[in-house]
Each structure stands twice: as structure tokens, then as C-alpha cells.
Amino acid sequence: MKKLIYKYHIVFPFIALMCIALISCERGFSDDVEVATFGSNPEIYTDAPVGLTDEFFESFDPATGANPEGFGTDENEAYSGRSSIRIDVPSPTDPDGGYIGGIFRDRGKGRDLTEYDALTFWAKGSTTTTIDQVGFGTDFDKNKYAVNMSNIELSTKWKKYIIPIPDASKLVQERGMFLFSAGTSNNNGIGFTFWLDEVKFEKLGTIGQPRPAILGGQDQTAQANVDTTVPLTSFTYTANLPNGQDVTVSVTPYYFDFETSNPFVASVNEQGVVSVDGAGDVDPETGEPDAFATITASLGGLNAAGSLTVEAVDIDIISIFSDVFANVAVDNYNGFYEPFQTTLGGSIEEDGGNVINYTLLNFVAIEFYGRGGSGVPPVDATEMEFLHIDIRANEIVDAADYIDISLHNNFTQSNEVSGTFRVNGSDLTSNDWVQFDIPLSSFSGLSAREAIGMMLFVSDGTIANVSLDNIYFYTEN
Amino acid sequence: MNFKNKVESRSLRLLSTSLVLFITGAITLSCNPDETQKVTTFNQITFADEFDKNGALNSDLWTYDIGTGDNGWGNNELQYYTDRPENVVVEDGMLKITAIKEDFEGSGYTSARILTKGLFKQKYGRFEARMKLPYGKGMWPAFWLLGANIDEVTWPFCGEIDIMENAGSQPTIVSGAVHGPGYSGANPLLKKYEFENSRVDTEFHIYGVEWGPNYINYYVDDVLYNRIAPQDLDDEEDVDSSDWVFNDGPFFMIINLAVGGNFDGNPTEDTVFPQTMYVDYVRVYYGGSID
User: Fold this and answer.
1) A246/B199 Cβ within 8 A
2) B160 is a catalytic site residue
3) Is the complex ipTM more than 0.95?
4) What CATH number is associated with residue B194?
5) What pTM, to 2 d.p., does this model score?
6) Residue B288: phi, psi to the nearest 5?
């Protein structure tokens, strides 16, 4: 049987022709058609796009590498009915673009999706691989209520997929009906095909155990100067599907309501950006300002896991590694001094933020002195008083374990001086972050600090797995 | 509660449900056109616990099984049953049985199992409980009946009627079963019921049986989804209708939340603890039509 692949630019004339044929048989559009096209119509694609824009598929910007050519429909494949959507995922070297992705938009002013609890569709692949992202709520305008699920596992048989709607009451007028994005990074760079069918919103009633989270569900802390901002990150929603499996989708901050415990210190806007507004009101009992504010969130009345406690400070900062402050340039977060150094790892993403993660630690250095003529300048910490660092031992720690932190001034020069501060195992907690504010005067031997170029961590293997975060020099004003 | 699921295909299940419903309807009609097999048949309340008084369970109605039994109550269950308020308490108008992940007396989990043995037993009637169940792999909540002569004739000769069992990894499916001599453990008469647009852990549902001479009808809410009768045993291997032990005497009730074991396997690292089974009420009815 001949395989017909309709590109979207020929599908439309065809559908238009069908419509005309249909119209000519009847007496024009009835009121029912109006309702089906606008309002709360749940269908997105059955055997044809339902109430979508004339473009049907609106590709991501080809400037980003998106390939607009691989989208069409297929009358030889369908889970139900006569046809399905066919997507040919290009190889990374395809001259038309190395991945495919885009959205379907409601052709009207948007749909009322408040009565549904999931976006569902059927999919199958030419091979068992993954689709990078599928979701809804992206409308190429404000993308306000975008929800996306990552790494959808395809099988070579038709399978139903369910993307839970976190809080349908927000979706009173949604234009972003569907989004997908697919590349070949999980298929060894080899192009593949997948099909989608029966794409629609549904009220299943079989989704339970909603669990919203911010900041990866972690309780985090940050110091920040007054009149600066700290963005919250990693907004997710986890729910349990009728098959008993949990799924987690990424969602926008607009689904959440935020709350601050101390409006004198911090507020948070609907985009999840925390503003540090003041140093805090004076506590009448202590006479000291209460400089802490804890930001929490809820979604549809459910408390979200995770929080951010902000301490309003007035400090000057030179940041080496942090998501909150602007960092200075560094040469590397791991110098890999072989053969004596065993340490692996460096900067990684974790729960939507960045941390430094080391394994097999014996010693490792963060270098910022211009190694190999890189031009990275050393740090003048003359005016700084403290080194702040967060340490998490990712293993059981014994009291006798240690991490020695050394700072080197004029590193590799003849006038190099250095000082060391020991963090004892008894001061660390297994698998939990501990914050340290170490006076630079405690680095004995560090007689000058106008050109600090290396920070060395030595555990001699007593602690092999460790994460570091929020490494900065500061002074209190 | 000591068995392995009997797998049935969905189409078979639907077919058998339809047949059962049809036959039930036909029998009902032919017996007495004015009556249907609803709660009205069993209109005298003989036992009711509405769980309205905060604190410990009413000791006039309930007792406890404590510990791990033999080999995890015969099913490789992982929990240690206690009567501590952490595991079993009446609160907010409900009985709450909570499974906790904790080291306790050599077990990795605690939970509770309550029963009316020695306090209440009845032959025939409607037994029902309104419950919201926990969720997650390894959760095994159950509401069931055991023959009150268990200590004389032993299990399975005493008979067991499982009104509701749920595997926590399947939040839309419950099952009902009977066990007796030759059809126990992994080979009970069992049938599953699947919610089409609800779940066991998000809403309260009424799970019940209507039990009379030579029949047990299984309900979820107002849906009759199975009828088990002695002639069903004729279709099984090595047993026949003479092995029906459910006309022999009264049964007592058990409600428990097991962790791990043969029914749903053991919890995984993704299983969220603690988990609570909520029971709004337990009611038992009897009806003049039985006598």
C-alpha cells in the first residue's frame, strides 16, 4: 500500500476542500460548529486538527535549529479513525534543522479548559526512544500557563499518554493546545518517526495524589542585599496516574500562589521572583532587626514542597560560584591534576539550580588565576572579611573526617602565600547542606589576599563524595 | 486474603459481569418481582460503628491482632501490627489506620489490624464499609470476613470472604474473593472491579457484600459487580459446590492495612510513607427475608 505523507502545507488545502465539500452538502455552518470550534471543545486532533490555526503546526524558530519540514499527517497510521499526525525527527546534521518542535494553537481566542484534568494522546514510534518534550499552554505569546513533560518513552505500539493539568481553574482562556519537541540525543543521532493521534483534553477522574513543588522540593536559604532579587526555580507538579505511576511535569510560576513570612524583608511576584525589600523590622524583644523571610508557595490550595529563606544583608560580595550573585570568571571548577588527583566532577544542575559535585575526592581546586594564559584575573579580596560556602557530604561522615580549604594568593608566583582552614567531619551532616561563614583571618598563613587565584579542597579520601554551593567572599557593611 | 490474583481478561470480565447481571436480574425477577437485591432486603442494623468518638476504638466492638503472625500473617507481609494511636485511632469522625515506615520490634513498618472476633459475628446479611484507601506500591488494605469457627476447623475450612482488597500500585482497581477448602491461597474465586472515573485514594467509596443462602453479591458503591454461588465451584478444578462453606455459620469482620507481601509486592523507594486508610463507617444489616 502506498504511504501518503501530507505536509501541513498540502493538508490544509485538502481539509479546506473537504470542508467546502461538506458545506456544499449542507446549509452552511450551524450554531453547533461555533460551539465546537470555540468554548470548551476538548479535541485537538482526531482525524484532522480541531479548531486550530490555519498553520496547524507552528514550528519553533528555525534559527534555533528547528526543522519545520518534518511535520505532516499520515493516512496509513491511526490509533483510531483514518489518520494520525506523523513527525519525522531529523538527524542533528539535517540542513533544514537538527530537531523538530512547535505548537498547535486554538484558532479563536482560546478555550475554557477548566473542566478537564489532563491532556491525553496516543503515540507510537518507529523505534523505542524518547520525545524530549510534550505539553500544552505554550502559545508563543505569554506562555503563561505552560506545562511540559520531559522524556516521553515511545514504544513501537500505540500507547496512551497522560499529562496532568496542575490547576485547571487557571485555564479559562487557553490558546496553547499542544507542544512537542523532539531530537535524536536519546537515539544516537539517528532520525526516527513518531505518530500522534486522538490528542485531546479529558476529565479522567483517575489522577490523584497531587504534589506541587518549588526549588526541587528543597528548603533552601540565600543571603541577598536589599534592593536585589532572587529568582525561584524548578516549579514542578507530580501526580499519580491511573496505572499507579507518578509523573512529574514542569509548570510555570503562574500556577502558584506565593507567600512571604516577613513582608518587611522580602516579597515575591507572580513570576516567582523574590525582591529583597528591606533589612527587616526591629524585633521589640531583641532590639535586633528580623532579617529573615521565608517564601513558600501553594498550587490550587495545596502547599508546595520547598521554600526559600532569604536573609537580607548589606554586604559586598565577590562570588565564585552561586545562583544568586553574579560570579567572577574562573578557569575551572576542577583542575584535574593527574596522576595524583582522583577527584571527578564539577558544576552540575540539580533541582533547577547549579551546584558543584565532586566524587572520588582526594583533592581538587577551583582555579581563577589565568591558567594557561586564559586571562582570568585573580580575585582581590583585600576588603573582604569572610568566605561563605555551603557543603553537603553525600555520604556518611565520621567526626575524624575533614575537608581542608586552602586559599592561595599569587598562585604559581614566587611570592605565593597560602592559608588553610579545616572543616571537621563533626561539623558536617550526611546528605544535608551545612553553611559556613569563615573569617578570612582564620586562614592562617594567608598574609596577603590581593590576588587570590586558587581555592583548594583536600580530604585525603576521608570524604569522597561532596557537593559545594554558594561560594563567595563578602564583607559586612 | 491469602492468595494470588487470578488474572482475567477485560473482555471476559465484562462478559461475565454482563452474564452475572443478567442472570441475577433474571433470578431476582423470577423469585420475586417486587424485590431487588439491595440494602432494603437487609433492613435491620445489627452492627454499626460510625467512628464518631475521638480516641481509641470502641473495645465492645473491636479487638486487635498484634505482631507479625507466622511468616508475615502467612503472606510475607512486612509490618508489625500494633494498637498504638500512631497506627490506629478514631479522629475527625473516621477510623484511621496508618502504615508507618519505622524500625519496630524487628520489623521495618508498623500498621494495624482490627477485628470483631469474639465480639460480633453474623451469618448472612449485608456487610459494608465506606472507605478511602492509601496509595503506593506495597500497600494492601483489606476489609474481610472469616468463619467464626476458625479455631476449631482451621483455615481455609472456616471460609473467608474478602469484601474488598486493593493493591496500592493499582489505584483504580479493587477485588472481592472467597476462599474455602480447595480454593484458597492462590486459587480463590476472585473478581476485580475497576473504577472508570474515580480512584480508591481520592474519594470515599462503599465496599460491601450481600450474603445469603447460596450466594454472595459484591458491591462497590451502588454497582453490583460480582455474584458468587456454589455452582461457581463446579467450574473449578478439584472442587465442587459441596465445598461451599458459606451456609455453615457466622463470620467475624477484619479491617487491616498490610505493607508488602504477596498481594502487591513490597514497597519501593518511591512509596510515600506514612499512608492512611480512612474508614467512615462499618455497618452490618440483617433482613427478615433471610430467615
Assistant:
1) no
2) yes
3) no
4) 2.60.120.200
5) 0.80
6) -60, -25
